[in-house]
Design goal:
Enolase-like, domain 1, alpha+beta, 4-stranded antiparallel β-sheet, 5-stranded antiparallel β-sheet, binds flavin-adenine dinucleotide, Uridine Diphospho-n-acetylenolpyruvylglucosamine Reductase, domain 3
Length: 294
């Protein structure tokens, strides 16, 4: 295999500045390469000894085709290299997906938002990944590419099926995430994102909650509720969604739904918050979202 040869830092065999998807996939080869996007997870993990690189570090930061946001009537497509700042600065996207804009707004600091990519947020597969939550609510699909012989082969999988455990996903080691796409919602929609933490940003979520639904006559339909940091993977609260679906939002339903959600999630307790506190936050966020509708 011929790789573009940039002189590598001593610890890596190759440092590739990929300029096309094919080149990045070729460099991933048999899966022994490591993709570098914004580096906001990767460098920290390397410094902490959590992550060791394969023989090739593949820098995709010059891959322009992964940096595009395209907004059509039927599909919104975010290239994997789209950053949180790109999301925040796109007013049209903010109107279509306000929950995603809110998640980007609550994400880290402006310095991190300038480099942190949407593809990296998915690929890192943290149970607390913020940008993932609103995209789960939008039934997003993940586009993946790999080299099959000499051609690039792609597949799409629902975001909800992407994660398999903390730091783990169905992405094969030789696959590059190329985009995250979703269908824009029609009509009047509820779309909120909540994130805990004593500061507005720069906090790993103790709990995050996203909700998207269509509103008509005080009833919610096509309800999607997703939560971060309450389970080993970003979590869709399908039982609570089903309870709310098509129902008139009143005090009784809000009480039942928040009780239901607290039962449905399985948070752990750690230094950032006890399991009780996480359940309490999840209930509070759902209560706030539903009370606003009521
Ligand atoms: C100070 C600080 C604050 C943070 N705050 C938040 C926060 O508020 N919310 C939050 O969710 N996260 C936060 N993070 C984590 C991090 O910023 C995000 O997860 C970010 O989205 C990662 O994107 P990246 O482009 O930097 O990924 P990188 O660090 O470049 O890569 C992360 C992982 O994904 C892989 N990867 C990246 N892109 C692709 C791709 N296209 N295809 C396949 N694999 C790929 C890499 O190989 C690596 O394993 C924070 C990190 C720091 C250091």
């Amino acid at each position: 295999m011929t790789l573009p040869q940039n002189q590598s830092p001593a610890e890596f065999e190759y440092y590739v500045n990929a300029t096309s998807i094919e080149e990045a996939c070729r460099a991933l080869g048999d899966g022994t390469g490591t993709i570098l996007a914004g580096g906001s997870d990767l460098w920290v993990q390397k410094d902490e000894g959590v992550k060791t690189f394969g023989p090739r570090l593949i820098n995709i930061s010059r891959l322009e085709e992964l940096a595009e946001i395209s907004i059509g009537n039927d599909q919104v497509r975010l290239g994997a290299r789209v950053t949180m700042t790109d999301i925040l600065c796109n007013n049209e996207l903010g109107k279509i997906a306000p929950g995603l804009a809110e998640a980007a707004n609550r994400f880290a600091s402006s310095q991190i938002r300038n480099v942190a990519t949407i593809g990296g947020n998915f690929a890192n597969a943290s149970p607390a990944a913020d940008a993932v939550i609103p995209l789960l609510c939008l039934d997003a699909e993940i586009e993946l590419a790999r080299l099959d012989g000499n051609a690039v082969a792609t597949r799409s999988i629902p975001a909800v099926d992407f994660f398999t455990g903390p730091g783990k996903s169905v992405r094969a080691a030789d696959e590059l995430i190329t985009a995250i796409s979703f269908k824009p919602r029609d009509g009047k929609s509820l779309a909120r994102f909540f994130k805990s933490g004593p500061r507005p940003a720069l906090e790993i979520s103790i709990v995050s909650l996203g909700i998207v639904a269509d509103i008509s006559d005080g009833k919610l339909s096509n309800v999607r509720i997703a939560l971060g940091a309450v389970a080993p993977i970003p979590f869709r609260a399908r039982k609570t969604e089903a309870l709310i679906e098509g129902q008139k939002i009143d005090d009784n339903l809000i009480a039942a739904a928040t009780d239901y959600l607290a039962e449905e999630i399985s948070p752990i307790g750690d230094v950032r918050g006890s399991a009780w506190y996480r359940r309490h936050l999840a209930r509070t966020y759902l209560q706030e979202a539903l009370t606003n509708v009521a």
